[in-house]
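Researcher: I've been going back and forth with a colleague about how Cof-like hydrolase might be arranged in three dimensions. Neither of us has a model we trust, so I'd like an independent prediction. The organism is Anaerococcus lactolyticus ATCC 51172, in case that matters for your notes. Sequence below.
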Amino acid sequence: MIKLIASDIDETIISRDQKVPERNKEAIKKAIEKGIIVILATGRGPYEIFDIPDQAGVVADDRYIICCNGAVIMNVKTKEIVNVVDMDFAYARKIFAYAYENNLTFYLYTLNKKYGINLSDESIVAEKHINILDTDNIEFLKDETILKVIIKNKDMNKLQAQEVDIAKITDYNLEISYSSNMYMEINAKGVNKAVALKKVCDYYGIDLKDVLAIGDNHNDVAMLEEVGRSVAVNNARLQVKQTADYTTSLDNSKGAVGEAIEKFVLNL
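Model: Here is an independent structure prediction for Cof-like hydrolase. You can compare it with whatever you and your colleague have in mind.
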């Protein structure tokens, strides 16, 4: 019996225009009315959630959101951070140096800010909250809590080759996944959505076998592997579809999350 639903955000519960489709909203509302807990599990930073939880109707007392692939668990209403697993600054420094030397797009997430170098004009306009780094080092961040870093490259073959380099320079001691077919997501070892989801479920006294998880990309795979019912949206990557129990007929823009909830929770 499903007691909790965990959904990814980008390319899963929201459409390309950053809106939650009506079918998703209606299904979530009905699930909550049945007493089911609905949470979001995302790679986004705590300050990049914007109004998405409100759109989805999942803001309530004693409800949480998983951010930065599991590095952060935050109260979705009060924004209180209740759990953090940070990255060793020495690793962040090495990855920054690699990105700087190779002229790669690089993002770094702290608890309060997101930084970037070598961003396109399009990214600068689209992500106004990013602090542009104009420096050849990040020593000024050594006392900050580093949640994750990202290398961006739209050429996945090159990105995967860069993963090999990064794994070597960080002693194979970090968690590496992918999102949106262009982001290499790098977290502290052992950080993923599955581990964070287990912590949330333990808090509520819910077994992972009673969880429905929905996702689209590589950074969702660990979560999908651990729950009782896993769903890939129609636009998901092949690996995700192969991992999931079910693939929706709808894509993220048409209400794939709503379809999943209707099938496995509302029995429509």
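Researcher: What would you highlight for our discussion?
Model: I'd start with this: DSSP finds ten helices and 14 strands in the chain. After that, consider the following. The longest strand covers residues 146-152.
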